[in-house]
User: Which sequence fits this backbone?
């Protein structure tokens, strides 16, 4: 939950905050082993962001802790002011929420990867060649129809390609004290379902029954002849974002997981027609009067970074840049451009590096002509700070926090 | 209390620390809506501070937490090394201490504002036109003489203009779990006395009796026909500053609240003849041999900031600047120029912005020719850090801290 002294300091008024998260925004420059050279943000032609930086405050955020590479879940929780070390929950819950499903108190959720194994049970592909979503749907239907576990209702929910989720519904609910069966590696077999605490023993039996039946049902499929489970999680118990900050929050996102997280926090989801940054900004402008907090999530920066596609990430940044004037025309009282974590394309993965941060408001100390980049951000007025403090800054600059003490 | 690992590391020796607090030191630059341009500190001609910065370490402090605008009480506590989130107490206790009154274990204190209400009880002026202090004294005397509450001794203490304090003395003492009656707004009536916890129920009755009688007694007064209460507080329990750090501390301040806080911390108050920065430095130099820690409080920077008087704040900074050589001549082992918080004159109020910080000692890393300003401080050797760590730095640079561990 947001810092303890917060709820009572928050003021309800008409000022608006736009928090635009460029997923995986930060870069590293150069290639591993040959550091140096521009990052994607330095290479990108972003005249609007550069100009905006001059009349904004810059800084850089530490997503979870110095040196720690975060997953998208904890990294976003931090941006929303929820201590990611306190609010831990598995990928399963995020998947279910991302599908727009309500996870009940009686539901244990886990994320499924359809996978390929060889004759000896060793994993050869953790994603089953990224099977088409239609195949995923068919397999999920088959599993849900045929699997039978006494006193447990089993739901198998297709996501995209090889991704799915499972819900085990029973009362009292099962425990999330379960290890992943996904070994995160190939050439080895899936791990057997294992409780990691005494309280998970009953769950272990249920999950073993599920996995045994599933492997039998999938045995003749090609290439998805196996499945891997990870992120067991009960229903997350997250304080309502809008109530905590006294905001009317809306989320604009294309990817299911981010929609799911926003939904778990009680944000309303705004429909986006299309998947480009411009489509998301269309949605923002259209609903601008109906809310006073907007989480705008841009996925492409992270996706291209994970692909190792430097030019692709540069291009997404440039696509975002051309949208900036449209947002500024609406004159939100506080406009933040942040990232949840860094995804240097040279590393093809999330990383622990601090993340560039820009905050524009009528109340900010300004940086002058230094542009928007990792280098500019490292000497910015906001310093280097924990991402979990972003909301404090945003609320302050939007005139939404009272004074603390006399 | 000062950081836990402190008391045992503190060394008693002859080195001296001068902590000069320019209240509300930090600025914002430009005007809200048109950020940019110089802050007061940048605009002021401060050749002595600028030269000193070159042979000092700079940084910026976060008074209470990022984005949080502090009152003067918590902001000063932090500078003295007391966690302002742990040591919470109301304005009432500060007012009483500022009057040089000892608050007993049996005393509940609250701050009074004399105010003006219309025929329907709605507040038209929260400060009753800033009545003369003599009127305030007369009203306090009248209230103290006429108000009668069984088993409770009531003291009504005049401060300056519309400000006063009340003490409710009874054993066992009353609870501070009371909401303010001051709605901090005009056009609405005063709030009725309300306990915010079950334990405050007895107090609520006492305070209601006080308020009812007071409103009757004041009914025919002009313009002070009402009063507002805020900051209910029992006797604050603050560890002694001098004992914690093994220092002989003295305070040089003109305003009652800061004297009050220093007194609560066990600092000795040095008399100041006059109210100008130069008068305070006179007092410092005169008593320089008698103590080894000096808290020198300059109020004008904050007052002019609150007035929205950019030039006035610049002028106070320039008045302080000419005093710097006099202080340096005494060669204190550690000389700190800090602020408790920012008060940008463009905002006419306290703010959350980081506060410029300068530390001069024979042991500091030096900055070179960058002057003393918000911009210079943002890239200083000391970084951006919580104000509650200022005393650690000051003691270290004065050679007053032992090594931690072997």
Assistant:
């Amino acid at each position: 939950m947001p810092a303890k002294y917060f709820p009572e300091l928050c003021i309800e008024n008409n000022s608006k905050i736009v928090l635009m998260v460029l997923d995986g925004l930060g870069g590293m420059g150069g290639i591993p082993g040959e550091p140096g050279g521009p990052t994607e943000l330095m290479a990108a032609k972003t005249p609007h962001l550069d100009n905006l930086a001059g009349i904004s405050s810059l800084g850089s955020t530490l997503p979870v802790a110095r040196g720690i590479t975060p997953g998208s879940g904890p990294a976003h929780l931090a941006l929303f002011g929820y201590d990611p070390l306190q609010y831990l929950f598995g990928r399963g819950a995020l998947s279910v929420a991302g599908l727009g499903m309500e996870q009940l108190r009686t539901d244990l959720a886990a994320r499924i990867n359809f996978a390929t194994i060889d004759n000896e049970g060793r994993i050869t592909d953790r994603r089953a060649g990224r099977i088409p979503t239609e195949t995923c749907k068919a397999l999920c239907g088959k599993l849900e129809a045929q699997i039978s576990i006494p006193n447990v209702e089993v739901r198998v929910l297709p996501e995209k390609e090889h991704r799915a989720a499972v819900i085990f519904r029973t009362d009292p609910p099962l425990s999330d004290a379960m290890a992943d069966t996904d070994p995160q590696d190939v050439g080895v077999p899936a791990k057997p379902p294992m409780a990691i605490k005494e309280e998970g023993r009953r769950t272990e039996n249920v999950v073993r029954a599920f996995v045994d039946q599933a492997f039998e049902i999938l045995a003749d499929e090609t290439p998805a002849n196996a499945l891997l489970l990870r992120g067991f999680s009960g229903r997350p118990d997250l304080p309502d974002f809008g109530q905590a900050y006294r905001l009317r929050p809306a989320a604009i996102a294309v990817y299911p997981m981010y929609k799911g997280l926003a939904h778990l926090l009680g944000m309303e989801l705004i429909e986006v027609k299309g998947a480009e940054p411009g489509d998301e900004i269309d949605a923002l402008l259209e609903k601008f009067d109906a809310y006073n907090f907007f989480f705008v999530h841009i996925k492409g920066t992270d996706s291209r970074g994970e692909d190792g596609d430097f030019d692709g990430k540069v291009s997404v940044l440039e696509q975002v840049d051309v949208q900036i004037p449209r947002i500024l025309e609406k004159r939100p009282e506080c406009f933040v451009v942040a990232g949840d974590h860094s995804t240097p394309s040279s590393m093809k993965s999330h990383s622990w590096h601090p993340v560039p941060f820009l905050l524009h408001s009528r109340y900010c100390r300004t940086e002058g002509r230094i542009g928007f980049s990792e280098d500019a951000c490292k000497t910015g007025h906001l310093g280097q700070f924990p991402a979990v403090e972003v909301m404090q800054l945003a609320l302050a600059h939007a005139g939404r926090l009272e004074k603390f003490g006399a």
Observations:
- The CA atoms of residues 25 and 40 of chain A lie 9 Å apart.
- Chain A has a mean pLDDT of 94.
